[in-house]
Amino acid sequence: MTNPYQDQIDQLQKKINENQTLLGDPELGELAHLELTRLEEQKQLLTQAADQMHQAQTPIGPSIKHQNAILEFRQGTGGDEAKIWAEELMRMYTRFTEILGLKVEFIDDQVIKIKGKAQIEGFDEALTAYELLENESGVHRVQRVPVTESQGRVHTSTATVAVLPEIHPQAIEISDDDLIWEFMRSSGAGGQSVNKTSSAVRLTHRPSGIAVTARQERKQTQNRQIALELLRSQLWEIEEEKRLKELGQARSAIGSARRAEKIRTYNFPQNRVTDHRIKESWYNLEGIINGNLEKVISTIISRLSPAE
């Protein structure tokens, strides 16, 4: 990658070398010392500018280890039961990450961010939040008798989980002209009060049609930042899907492929959780729903990782 600052840096280095030879001169030594200080400062500034440009132009690829994870939960088929199921999945992953000591941030009603690293059984090194959860994207199906069912019939409902990495601002370039910002009032923490200012944010990206909302924070500036984070993650995933398709490894966490893929069934009458990708079942459904997911997660990662 060409560095447009390199010629200037080389010229400065040449002058620095010249002035270093004059440091011992009784008449010019003091002036040379002052000039060296000025030249070194200029070189440092140019070097920093070159590093920042390099970071901004470096694409995020498979070699980059993503740290934080953004989880989005959406109800699927099944009406009110599907909505309840999506909320229970969100609670399950929240409890799981809290048990591991990871930090959970509530971004929106159906979106959370998981931050940090954790050690789990079967792995020598701590895994980042995204490494732990990236394989959880897809359709989660539940089979049980809803509390509203008067005749005791088992219903099947679904909810979708999307797991996205938090993307550095320099990795995805977003033009301000492509953004539509909308601001509205939202309920306060826990829905106990209503903000008097329009702090909630809805952000629409014109080219892709992606729309995200952020309303958890009381300050609009914070919600704007969160909305941009969500948008960057979704745009990155679209680009990642294109890249993998070109390599013959089509995979998407938010596109139709992974969202439509049924990855797991939670069967309450049989006390069984089955992952359909690795054809493995666990018979501790209540514990799993309450966040005891470590055995499931470690098995999934160890079985799916070699194929990635």
Task: Supply the CATH architecture of the largest domain.
Answer: 2-Layer Sandwich
Morphology? elongated
What name does the CATH topology of the largest domain carry? Alpha-Beta Plaits
Major β-sheet profile: 8 strands, mixed
Q: What are the low-pLDDT stretches, counting only 5+ consecutive residues below 50?
A: 56-64, 188-196, 250-259
Give me the side-by-side strand order of the main sheet.
2-3-1-7-6-11-12-13
Protein structure class: alpha+beta
> Taking all residues together, what is the mean pLDDT?
80
**CATH class category of the largest domain:** Alpha Beta
Give the N-terminus to C-terminus distance in angstroms.
28 Å
> What Rg do the Cα atoms give?
26 Å
Whole-number tally of structural domains? 3
- Could you tell me the strand content as a percent range? 15-25%
> What's the helical proportion of residues?
25-40%
Report the order of strands and helices: HHEHEEEEHEEEEEHHEEEHH
Strands, total number:
13
Number of helices: 8
Q: What are its keywords?
A:
308 residues, alpha+beta, Alpha-Beta Plaits, Double Stranded RNA Binding Domain, 13 strands, 38% helix
Describe this structure in words.
- With 308 residues, the chain is of the alpha+beta class.
- It has 3 domains: 6-56; 69-169 and 261-307, Alpha-Beta Plaits (2-Layer Sandwich), CATH 3.30.70; 171-246, Double Stranded RNA Binding Domain, CATH 3.30.160.
- The protein has helices at residues 6-20, 29-57, 80-99, 129-133, 220-246, 256-260, 285-289, 294-304; strands spanning 69-75, 103-108, 111-115, 117-118, 127-128, 138-144, 155-165, 179-184, 200-205, 211-214, 262-267, 272-275, 280-282.
- It is elongated, with a radius of gyration of 26 Å.
- It starts with 5 loop residues before the first helix and ends with a helix.
- The model is unreliable at 56-64, 188-196 and 250-259 (pLDDT under 50).
